[in-house]
Amino acid sequence: MADDVFADPQAWGFETRAIRAGQAHEPTSGAVVTPISLATTFVQEEPGVHRGYEYSRTGNPTRRALQDCLASLEGAGHGLAFASGMAAEDTLLRTLSPGDHIVLGNDAYGGTYRLISAVLAPSGIEWSAADLTDPDSLGAAMRPETKVVWAETPTNPLLTVVDLAATAEVAHAGGARFVVDNTFATPYLQQPLSHGADVVVHSTTKYCGGHSDVVGGFLATDDTELAERLAYLQNAIGAVGSPFDNYLTLRGLKTLAVRMDRHCSNARALVEMLKAHPAVSTVLYPGLPEHPGHAAAASQMSDFGGMVSFRLAAGRDAAMSVASSTSVFSLAESLGAVESLIEHPGVMTHASAADSPLEVPDDLVRISVGIETADDLVADLEGALDRL
């Protein structure tokens, strides 16, 4: 296929873009896989004149391929790949100044809360938490100094769904930038920019990489001026991953669609079992009709994802026991990979949110449903519940 077909990759379907967008065949050998460019520096034709690359922190061909591909999947004009999701968040929030205010969803990821409350707040950035499922709650939290409304949907770990269009309307009416962490949904299931978001954030460590073997982050936006500012900050800070990390993430994107289909179908099988088990008091999954955010999820997502949380009727000790007694599910932090993971958020991923407005229930278990045989996953988790 001639490389001039890359002139309009948005005309292709999602799966085709995941495999081809930004990934022209290597011109010297014709290799179909994007090369890993390990060079730290690039020859200039004359001082200040180069072929698009000068120093690998500033720009790298492998990173560029990843950026072009994932930006295409998000329907974004610009994309930047980072060394981690937190590096992406930190770089974005460095666009703020002392006295600026952030409204953070009251069910945000613990690492985001820690960055804002413990790292940025001492430097003069102000913040408050609000229920972003309620436009009135968000409106009441807005101030003249509010520059960012930060949402996740579905959220980590309570699987709350935020109506993107409604939240964008309130944020923009208050003059704030609307940032959406799309890590749980992935661009395969949801594209926040099309619903009014200004910036999309990913921990590409999760579903985009998909194999628990690479850490990375990503920002996508249609705002050219903001993208240029972010690129300047990224270069100045040095928040870039290695070429090999970028290659691994790009390889993961190629199978994102087929993996997400399996994550979603396996999650549905587990939700069905959890709903019927007497040890479980509540199942948190946007695909359930009784979920408070089901209608919003159905309107802005193509499926409901591979993350499930549930609460145990017997409380904290039962939650700790279930999280510690599975065989196919591995007791581990992180999520979004081919293997199924289970955790107790209160003492693991969200320990930093203890005694804060974002504290999670201590009877909560979160599972990242992998792509193993569904019957094996159901039997494993059901057995752990039966042993309580």
How many domains comprise the coordinates? 2
Indicate the CATH topology of the largest domain. Aspartate Aminotransferase, domain 2
- Helical amount: 25-40%
Number of continuous helical runs = 13
Shape: globular
| Rg, Å, rounded | 21 Å
User: What would you call the structural class?
Assistant: alpha/beta
Question: Strand-and-helix sequence, N→C?
Answer: HHEHEHEHEHEHEEHHHEHEHEEEH
Oligomer: single chain
Strand content range? 5-15%
User: Mean of the pLDDT scores?
Assistant: 95
* Structure summary, number of beta strands: 12
- Report low-confidence residues grouped into runs of 5 or more: none
Task: Give the neighbour order of strands across the main sheet.
Answer: 1-7-6-5-4-2-3
Alpha-carbon distance between the termini?
A: 58 Å
CATH architecture of the largest domain: 3-Layer(aba) Sandwich
- What can be said about the biggest beta sheet? 7 strands, mixed
Can you identify the CATH superfamily of the largest domain? Type I PLP-dependent aspartate aminotransferase-like (Major domain)
CATH class of the largest domain: Alpha Beta
Question: What features would you describe in this structure?
Answer:
The protein is an alpha/beta fold and 388 residues long. It contains 13 helices and twelve strands. Helix 2 runs parallel beside helix 9 and helix 3 (85-93) crosses helix 4. It is globular. The N and C termini lie far apart (58 Å). The mean pLDDT is 95.
What's the short story on this structure?
With 388 residues, the chain is an alpha/beta fold. It folds into 2 domains: 3-253, Type I PLP-dependent aspartate aminotransferase-like (Major domain) (Aspartate Aminotransferase, domain 2, 3-Layer(aba) Sandwich), CATH 3.40.640; 256-386, Aspartate Aminotransferase, domain 1 (Alpha-Beta Complex). It is 35% helix and 15% strand.
